[in-house]
Write a structure and sequence with these properties.
Helix content: 40-55%
Strand content: under 5%
Largest sheet: 2 strands, antiparallel
Strand order of the largest sheet: 1-2
Number of helices: 29
Distance between the termini: 62 Å
Number of strands: 6
């Protein structure tokens, strides 16, 4: 049997010392995981098993190793073998000896791995296989030799996407190249083409140009009349006039809103099996279309979606904009509201991460990101901004005068139908109460206790649970579990006949009813107090560990966020996040959006992975151009139409594809 088989199977027989008993270069960090001691830069695999080949897995598949590691863990759990969760600083050697004592009697077999061997293999994978140096706790950000104090490598900290946006000089063009430059974009592109020995193509013909730009900006082909008008316009600036007409078209917003709605995972139903309709979700769709048509500054667009209710509580548009955080799939039949809340928070965190920052935050939910400088703590720090947020599906949008008139007319209808409605209540109450009781009884005991607890005694987390439950227990909610239709289905015989007569009688007064006021769907903050946010072990909702405060990426030097009072009288957490995202010094938000625009115009962004600006995403093909356009975007008031105009009027865009 060769050395790799000894390691893979965990069999005795090696003359090398047990590294756990020696304690060489091994440590138990503050979160209880075996790691490399900071005092040693040596690879303990080579130090303790010097005669082994550099790759201890040669001749053995990684899948096979993982299978045996999994089997070992199951066996260890069955035998109640436990790794100590924590050890005090300076007590590393005793902790190592303690681990050795616990696992010394774990029998070796083809289906188990001794802890010593497992640790060495993990250490080799980390230190020698290019996965980053050190074996560290999931989510800790703690490191080992080769990792900086903050937990990130030099490569991670110096990655291009996390550097300040520069102000590069526009390349000087001379000779024939100067005649090919229509705007600054062309100067940067021609410089890159010259360096690569690429000759730019000629300008596309007029018919191709008007078809291209019309489809790009409005999603529709040009009409025969529009084509004829352009082909017959010989005056200078004919193309530019077409561009301005298209940017002013209402179809522009309809076209470009589709791309944003995809990012926002826009949906008009709840998802899952029931897939109930969200009757007011469409207002968010219209908000996005209107924002693009009005050329709303992108920084305002971002802030409204993240925290419109906190920053502009009296602006109906800003309230509807918060629907961005309401488009998560939801399951009304889920009874474990604590788990459901966590799943919703995860969805919102992931979406904010990739939509605004172009980073795969989701990969840091269960452990530190494998490649990017996003710790598990960073993931939950971002999530903490949303800890006090809940859905609201009936945002009042009508002006005060309309609400007052509605109240007056409703009072007239109520007086005219009082007796009918009282009779309906008497018939419906037993069945309605039974439906609600059946629904509530399926909640966990903790949730049932919260439902009967006086409102003034509920802590912020209990308020969150109540807000979630009220979506199903409030008669005004579109997800109410006991509407008249459900109640009527339980009635029988004479009671059902009487109920049907009363319902028919109620309809005779429909002309008096003022109808339903316009309502919106979004999110709201429940108040100044917030439930705590914890790092979750392996992302499990019921395995909280260290508490964290709201904060942004630590690789950018962000500590706890500055949360200030807001006009709405709420926690102000999402307002703080909104300010962080649109800070001109934030290297991600504007860059990501500029690249998305380029991506949709050319079919491939300057960064080929629009939602992954991390280490495994593509490098920018023209980094100076990306930074120049980002600076231009911000300096021109975050105007999206300005960027569209800049792109589609460039000679680069107007080139023939032939």
């Amino acid at each position: 049997m060769n050395h790799s088989q000894v390691i893979a199977r965990g069999l005795p027989g090696t003359a090398h010392p047990n590294p756990l008993s020696e304690g060489k270069g091994m440590a138990c960090n503050a979160r209880g995981t075996i790691g490399l001691s900071r005092a040693s830069n040596a690879n303990p695999f080579q130090e303790n098993l010097g005669s082994y080949p550099r790759n201890p897995l040669s001749g053995f598949s990684l899948a096979g190793l993982r299978e045996r590691v999994g089997a070992w863990r199951v066996e260890a759990k069955r035998r109640r073998l436990r790794v100590p969760k924590r050890c005090e600083d300076g007590d590393e050697r005793s902790a190592v000896h303690g681990l050795n004592a616990r696992f010394a009697n774990c029998p070796a077999s083809p289906h188990t791995l001794r802890r010593a061997v497992l640790t060495l293999v993990m250490t080799w994978l980390a230190a020698g296989a290019g996965v980053g140096v050190g074996v560290r706790a999931e989510g800790s950000g703690e490191g080992s030799p080769g990792r900086e104090r903050a937990g990130f490598t030099t490569e991670q900290r110096e990655h291009w996407a996390f550097q300040m946006v520069k102000s590069p000089s526009v390349p000087e063009m001379g000779g024939a190249d100067r005649a090919m430059v229509r705007n600054v974009i062309d100067a940067f592109v021609l410089k890159g083409q010259a360096a690569a020995g690429v000759v730019p193509g000629p300008e596309a013909d007029a018919l191709t140009l008007i078809r291209r730009v019309t489809l790009d900006l409005t999603g529709l082909p040009p009409t025969p009349g529009e084509v004829e008008a352009f082909l017959s316009d010989a005056a200078p600036g004919a193309y530019e006039r077409v561009v301005e007409r298209l940017l002013a078209s209402p179809h522009f917003g309809e076209r470009w809103a589709r791309h944003w709605l995809d990012l926002a995972r826009y949906a008009e139903s709840e998802g899952f099996k029931a897939d109930e309709t969200r009757p007011n979700a469409w207002r968010y769709r219209d908000y996005v279309i209107r924002s693009f048509n009005d050329d709303k500054p992108y920084d305002r667009f971002v802030m409204e979606q993240v925290a419109g209710d906190e920053l502009w509580p009296n602006d109906p548009d800003a309230r509807v904009a918060t629907g961005f955080s309401r488009h998560y799939p939801d399951e009304s039949n889920a009874r474990n509201l604590m788990q459901r809340r966590q799943e919703i928070l995860n969805d919102v965190t992931d979406t904010v991460g990739y939509a605004f920052t172009g980073l795969s935050y989701a990969c840091a939910r269960c452990h530190d990101h494998k490649w990017d400088p996003i710790s598990q703590a960073d993931y939950f720090r971002l999530q903490a901004f949303f800890a006090n947020t809940t859905a609201v599906d009936a945002i009042p949008l009508a002006p005060e005068s309309q609400r007052l008139e509605h109240t007056r007319r409703l009072a007239v209808w109520e007086e005219a139908t009082r007796e009918i409605r009282e009779d309906l209540v008497r018939i419906e109450s037993p069945a309605r109460n039974a439906i609600i009781a059946d629904y509530v009884e399926k909640y966990p005991a903790e949730i049932q206790a919260m439902l009967v607890k006086p409102a003034r005694e509920r802590v912020p987390f209990e308020q969150q649970m109540m807000a979630k439950a009220e979506l199903y227990l409030n008669p005004e909610s579109h997800q109410y579990v006991a509407p008249a239709s459900a109640v009527g289905g339980r009635l029988k015989g004479e009671e059902k006949e009487k109920w049907s007569e009363l319902r028919a009688g109620l309809k005779r007064f429909s002309e008096l009813h003022p109808g339903v006021l316009p309502l919106g769907t979004g999110v709201v903050d429940l108040g100044p107090g917030c439930p705590p946010t914890h790092i979750l072990r392996r992302g499990n909702w019921d395995a909280p560990e260290d508490e964290v405060e709201p904060g942004f990426l630590s690789v950018l030097g962000h500590g706890p966020a500055e949360v200030r009072p807001v006009p709405a009288g709420t926690s102000g957490r999402r307002a703080a996040l909104a300010r962080i995202l649109v800070d001109p010094d934030n290297p991600l938000t504007a860059r990501v959006m500029v690249n998305r625009l380029w991506h949709h115009h050319f079919g491939r962004g300057l960064v080929g992975t629009p939602s992954d600006f991390g280490l495994k995403g593509d490098q920018p093909t023209h980094p100076e151009l990306l930074d120049w356009m980002t600076r231009d975007f911000v300096e021109k008031g975050w105007s999206l139409k300005h960027m569209h105009r800049r792109i589609v009027t460039s000679a680069t865009y107007r080139q023939s594809s032939q």
